Fold each of these.
Amino acid sequence: MIEVCEGDITRLEVDAIVNAANSSLLGGGGVDGAIHRAAGPELREYNRGLGGCPTGEARISPGFRLPARHVISTVGPVWRGGGHGEPELLASAYRNSFELALAHGLRSIAFPAISTGVYGYPLEAATRIAVSVMRCYEDRFERIIACCYDAETAAVYRRVLDEIRDCSEGGE
Ligand code: AR6
């Protein structure tokens, strides 16, 4: 079951919220800033011990002051025109976040629209990759939430979820 929610990911009571982080894992703007503010300084302190995260990989932390039990930080690609491995790296960011959640026995997970803000990935293309990977994991989770911060993103997710109904691991 994949749900589209419109609003602030930091409010969700789920096993894990995914953070669209940068490779330092120490905080930034956008959803990353919101998650660090809501989790408290403990998240930054904890993440300092993780030693960063390469693009396409994921790391797990406790949720600290968040209603979510864990934060899974992943680093999406910066959009550089599409010919620099961006689709594969974005698919890996989603896939590695799901795999980490499964390895920790988590059953509910919420994602922001990774890379579509500061990192500039075109929304439609990014959503098609996100949904393609989500379809591969929907049977293994109770809840998968696409947490969209604005109405335009939510509308694109709803339409793409209608169009893409099967798993295609690499994106498409
Ligand atoms: N809840 C849900 N979604 C949100 C929230 C929120 N509270 N706030 C923003 N968004 P971005 P990126 C949406 O820029 O493109 C940071 O500085 C936002 O509207 O947060 O992966 C990091 O440190 C957009 O749809 O992430 C990195 O340096 C989506 O989240 C860099 O930005 C992603 O936008 C990562 O850039």
Amino acid sequence: MADPSVTAPIGGLPPGAAEISVPDPCLLVIFGASGDLTRRKLVPALFGLHREKLLPAGFSVLGVSRTPHTDDSFRALLAEGAREELGSGFDAASWDAFVPRLFYHPGDLLDRAGYPALRDRVRSVCALRGIPGNLLFYLAIAPKHYGSAVLGIGAAGLSAEEEAVPGFRRIVIEKPFGDDLASAKRLSAEVSSVFREEQVFRIDHYLGKETVQNLLVFRFGNGIFEPLWNRNYIDHVQITAAEQIGVGSRGDYYDGAGAVRDMLQNHLLQLLALVAMEPPISLSADDVRDEKLKLLRSVESIPADRVGEACVRGQYAAGTIRGEAVPAYRQEKNIPPGSLAETYVAARFTIDNWRWGGVPFYLRSGKRLAGRSSEIAIRFRPAPYRLFEDTACGQMESNLLVLNIQPDEGIYLQIGAKFPGPSVCVQPVDFRFSYEQSFGAKSKPAYGRLLLDAMLGDPALFPREDFVRVSWALLDPFLTRWRENPGRDLYFYPAGSWGPREADTLLTREGRRWRTP
Ligand code: BG6
């Protein structure tokens, strides 16, 4: 365990706030080290932790992938990635101090014969850097290879927490964990044949976002919202994760996954659970995760033959983003010309419990949309009688609360106010909390926080196996329907729009409409 007396201050903490523990030295072994995730997210996040003095002296990274690299060429690749990612925030002097922590080992994770050499390299880097034996594996590889990597690690004896060699063995597994219920169960069985549940950290980086963590504080740390948080006051909820970027260089992975597996099964269902769950009895990892699980189990499942009424998929056609012409999904790199993968999904769920009975939750996510925004919008019921309906300014909207996850991190509440002047005229105005204005900075990238938690062995922000299983069970009828008829419920939308028009009808037929974030 980390020594709790060894702590590092975080800049700007208010007096009395807890300090963050610095973990014990460990070796982070990243499978998929020459890929995008390592270069663009993981290493820049680790560099951030290094600069904040949250990494212990010996902490090191051993990158593993098939690409031939030496330690030096690997370091150069990562420097380039960090420079691109951090822009003017890249500081060359700090990078020079960080770089001795980085090592590389060429190896094919599918080739069992290569694991003994990896084990030797792990030992030699640990000896060189004074790491007592703590190993954290990170699978930043194609999801279809997770099982092989885990079994390879096990067969090489790298997962065993031996008494002779003190220290922990843990593994971080990226999402999607499986690609349907059956494969998720199979993968779970493989993982649990090598690691115990408390050694497994399934990552969903949305949970590492400050604004997502703030959901619990907002709901349960303030007395005034919770009494309103139910079917008596809330008309419906919209959860949106909209992106302007396209599939980029990830076509190989994305075309087999699509938006349902890439975003809905994990990020969006996690947000749904956090916004709708009951208050946990404590903030302990399992108390919070128990409540999230209970909520997810209360979501009404939609049988395959009714999926068309509750879900619309889309794929982007050519269009314009920020004034620039962009190609259709089917013309992107590594995408087959007749691909039927969805780059957009919108779905309507209901929750069968006392708090939420009858309140629709509309979830949507898409690439190449008109704007970039992740938010949770709570639309309240209108005032019970419409005193101001006939005022000069026309129809008044009911109150709206928006929890903005990114990019304008903050919260706002829209209320009606009297427009100044002699006549009674009601106009919507906002109460706003801006994360940046209140705390003097944008929030930090999610990966840093999550990597640190995995090193500290804190599972609170990582989905548990049962949650993952229930989320797949909920979506399995969707996947079955599209497996049998791949083009079903799929419509095209021009890049730069808000998705297929058919998605609007999910709401308009109930007298509602999507918000434009
Ligand atoms: C990832 C998905 O999990 O989340 C990507 O695989 C997506 O397709 C990304 O672009 C979005 O994350 P963020 O933090 O930019 O909203």
